[in-house]
Amino acid sequence: MERMQGEGEVDHLERPSPLTDKERVMIQDSWGKVYQNCDDAGVAILVRLFVNFPSSKQYFSQFKHIEDQEELEKSPQLRKHARRVMNAINTVVESLENSEKTTSVLQVVGKAHALRHKVEPVYFKILNGVILEVLAEAFSEVMTAEVAAAWTKLFASLYCTITAVYEELGWKKHSTSTG
């Protein structure tokens, strides 16, 4: 059963310490290998998200009713969204030394998902976990414990930034439906 703790609320998390130079390099090096397979990795991430957290599909009118995993994997709309997710992550990873650019990207993503798509902020946390899980499985040769810890720290920071955007927008729960 899917658990949605704190749904509709914005977490108040302490921002993790900034990434060290070593952590930035580990993230960028590992991402380089992932991004070479960006389409397959992105599809794997979204399919895992939708299979493990079916309520996350409610935000996607084009494929929210697709139950079959193979059909999901082949969906042109899912593939297109997977590419957008991977490109956004790529922009963030390439810009780790430029906090203004990273913040700018996350503000655009946060505003769009809060205002236009009305996505509960908890789904960003869920997606972060799914990304880490898929990368650990598909890229085990580069996703060592130390690299995974750096990614976890990055995702915690990104989540704090996105939830801050939601708070600035005065986020209120928009939906009671979770599946």
Describe this entry's structure for a reader:
This protein is mostly helical. It has one domain (21-168): Globins (Globin-like), CATH 1.10.490. It contains 7 helices and no strands. The protein has helices at 21-35, 38-52, 69-74, 76-94, 99-116, 122-138, 145-168. Helix 2 (38-52) packs across helix 4 and helix 4 (76-94) packs antiparallel against helix 5 (99-116). The longest helix has 24 residues, at 145-168. It is globular.
Structure, briefly:
The chain is mainly α and 179 residues long. Helix content is 64%, strand content 0%.
Mean pLDDT: 89
Tell me the overall shape: globular
CATH class: Mainly Alpha
Query: Residue ranges: pLDDT <50 for 5 or more in a row?
Result: 1-9, 175-179
Largest sheet: none
In the CATH classification, which architecture applies? Answer: Orthogonal Bundle
Total DSSP helices: 7
Distance between the termini: 11 Å
Helix content: 55-70%
CATH superfamily: Globins
Give a count of the beta strands, DSSP E runs of length 2 or more. Answer: 0
Work out the strand percent: under 5%
What structural class should be given to the helix and strand makeup?
mainly alpha
* Count of distinct structural domains: 1
Query: What name is given to the CATH topology?
Result: Globin-like
N-to-C series of helices and strands: HHHHHHH
- Radius of gyration (Å): 16 Å
